[in-house]
Amino acid sequence: MRIGIGLRMYYAAVTIVLVILFSIPFLWMISASFKTQVEILSSDKWLAFGAEFKNYLMVFKEYDFITFIRNSFVVGTASTLASLALGLPAAYAVAKYRMGLFSLTVLVAKILPGITYLVPWYILFNELHLIDTFAALILSHIVIGLPFIMWVMIPFFESFPAEVEESAWMDGCSKMRTFAMIVLPVSVPGIVTSSLLSFIFSWNNFMFSLILSGEKTKPLPLAVYNFISGTSIEWGALMAAACIITLPVLLLSLVMQKYIVSGLSAGAVKG
Amino acid sequence: MSSTWIDRNIKWIFSLPAVIFILVMVAFPIAYTVRISLYEWSMSASTPPKWVGLGNYAGLLTGDRFWASVGRTFFHTGVSIVIETILGILIAVLVSRKFKGQKTTKTLLMLPMVATPVSISLVWLLIYEPSIGLANQILKALSLKPLPWLGSVDLVLPSLILVDVWQWTPMIVLIVVAGLTTLPTDPYESASVDGATAAQKFFHITLPLLMPTILTAVILRLIDLLKTFDTIYATTQGGPNYASETLNIMVFNEAFTYFKFGSASALMMLFFLLIMVVIIALIALKKRLGGLH
């Protein structure tokens, strides 16, 4: 479609304004993370680098952020790996053997509000003394990761040509071996997409950690949230913490942009 | 070729671990929730759970707090979804035309939805801060009166809707952009021959063809909107004076602030029913309008 130069300028201007509007909170967060409390309060300067990295140093020195980052990594990685171990074979079975009821159950688990399981989990984990253990957090995060992995992988496995598997079976390759040696290697893009999403959802999870974690297992979102429970808020340090927690997922999404977008809109276009 | 036991039962070997996990972690807790919704049970009290039948449900349905919370949930969800859908479609049409920096634009638009919700909430907490926040600085620059964004009973929900629109309109954009790339080109060509304007093409070709995609995007967004938790809890915890207490927040507060597990579980079941009704209605609508592919 050919459009005039005036119209093109107009579209460009609107697009730029939109991008700025959607970026402002991020820019505000970054600029505030480099300011001192006084500079934020006086608010006459947008960019004041007087505080430099003081806020960041403070977050690491006084609040033991290394531990929280480690906790989040442990939970995110373990729950993603477990979700893959459970979800990949299950998604394959659903795709190849048309287990409609099972895939519906997974969908329901994705639709249900997380709070529906949180109360019984809390009662149960409390009885079993599992509150504030990694086991409780990892188990709860698998419930987020597993449906996502199946959600992305079922259509992926469905589109895998059946003839390829059948010829492998004819050659005497067992079904387990065919899955591991032929289907999985071809499915790496789907596996990357679903693992990334599973990890990001675990990294970002707040509600489950709020109840199931404690001093020993506190993950990042909860640690950052606890900053505001004090009487006076150290805004600079708070924004530095917000930057630290957001940075890994932002970098991951930038590098793996193609995968993230396809994963987030998976199934949406096909309906 | 003799097939082994493993090969014959591969379907179950592959699916059973996941099935068992879901039964233990999801189905059993839901059944347990139904059960405790019939008891009066406070974890903090030393009295044992007491059977009250449907008493918890009756208490909720006759009380004001539940209905106020239902109203707020519908308000927050309804207003957000309308704004996000209209804005999302417009932005999608705008960014799906080819231009320099298209990829960068799409990347920047994707950031709000992958960023950690808690840090997003904290940034907005600072933006809405009455004396130093960006929101009131902008108002001051425009010589307008500053507003108590999250601090006022009337303003808190609109302020939270603005956060949701900022964070999740990009999701509608992404899905609609993906849908736009699959549209056929022939209708546009014949419309051009007939001399249709851009607006006519948009309303008579693009929108009808996109309907199934748009409805899917709306359903996905609605499911999540009804359950909004992180941004509301991390900014207001449902306050001030319950003014931002949606159903999800109310369940959480009943369960983990007051430890009234019985009544919280009954509330959860009502919340769950509401979500199912909305989703079934939407899927039926989608079947009638767009057809499931």
Range of strand content of chain A: under 5%
Strand count, sense and barrel status of the largest sheet of chain A are: none
Helix share of residues of chain B?
A: over 70%
- As residue ranges, the low-confidence spans of chain A are none
Q: How many strand elements of chain B?
A: 2
Helix content of chain A: over 70%
Instruction: Name the chain pair with the biggest interface and residue counts per chain.
Output: A-B, 97 and 97 residues
Within the largest sheet of chain B, what's the order of strands?
1-2
What is the ordering of alpha helices and beta strands of chain A? HHHHHHHHHHHHHH
DSSP strand count of chain A: 0
For the termini of chain A, the CA-CA separation is 29 Å
Please outline the major beta sheet of chain B: 2 strands, antiparallel
Structural commentary:
- The complex is a heterodimer of chains A (271) and B (293).
- Chain A is mostly helical and 271 residues long.
- Chain A has helices at 5-33, 37-42, 54-63, 65-97, 100-111, 115-127, 134-158, 162-170, 175-186, 188-204, 207-212, 220-226, 235-255, 257-264.
- Chain A is globular.
- Chain A starts with a helix and ends in a 7-residue tail after the last helix.
- The model of chain A has no long low-confidence stretch (mean pLDDT 84).
- With 293 residues, chain B is mainly α.
- In chain B, strands 1-2 form a two-stranded antiparallel sheet.
- Chain B is globular.
